Amino acid sequence: VEKLVSGVRQAADFAEQFRSYSESEKQWKARMEFILRHLPDYRDPPDGGGRLDQLLSLSMVWANHLFLGCSYNKDL
Q1: What is residue 65's predicted lDDT score, i.e. its pLDDT?
Q2: How far apart are CA 7 and CA 27, in angstroms?
Q3: Number of CB atoms found within 10 A of residue 25's CB
Q4: Would 73 be classed as within a structural domain?
Q5: Which of 15, 42, 58, 73 has a 20 to 30 Å separation from 33 between CA atoms?
Q6: How many whole angstroms from its chain centre is CA 18?
Q7: Are residues 30 and 66 in contact, defined by beta-carbon separation less than 8 angstroms?
Q8: 3-class secondary structure, 1
Q9: 47 within domain boundaries
Q10: DSSP per-residue letters across 12-55
Q11: CA angle 42, 17, 51 (to 5 degrees)
């Protein structure tokens, strides 16, 4: 159990660096969960393909849609 708790703490600490100064605690917790949920699918490849940047961008689009009511075109 301690190993699991430690892993969760490390993941949350990793994600914390991506928090925007303007996000409320509620918004950040939801976006952090989004990031952590999808992180395994967006790990940067060894050649530096920037997949993490794509995940962070998608997390902002998702949060803006959810919390601010923003809408985006279907392609996005």
Answers
A1: 93
A2: 23
A3: 8
A4: no
A5: 73
A6: 8
A7: yes
A8: coil
A9: yes
A10: HHHHHTT--TT--HHHHHHHHHHHHHHGGGGPPPTT---HHHHH
A11: 20
Work out the angle between the directed axes of helices 2-16 and 25-38 (0-180°, nearest 10).
110
Contact 26, 17 (CB under 8 A): no
**Token pair 């430690």 in the structure block, residue:** 6
Q: Is residue 76 part of a domain?
A: no
Residue 43: the pLDDT is 76
* 43 part of a folded domain: yes
pLDDT at residue 59 in the model = 95
| Domain count for the chain | 1
Per-residue pLDDT of the chain (76 residues; tens, 9 = 90+): 676 557 667 877 888 888 888 999 999 999 999 998 998 888 766 665 678 889 999 999 999 999 999 998 888 7
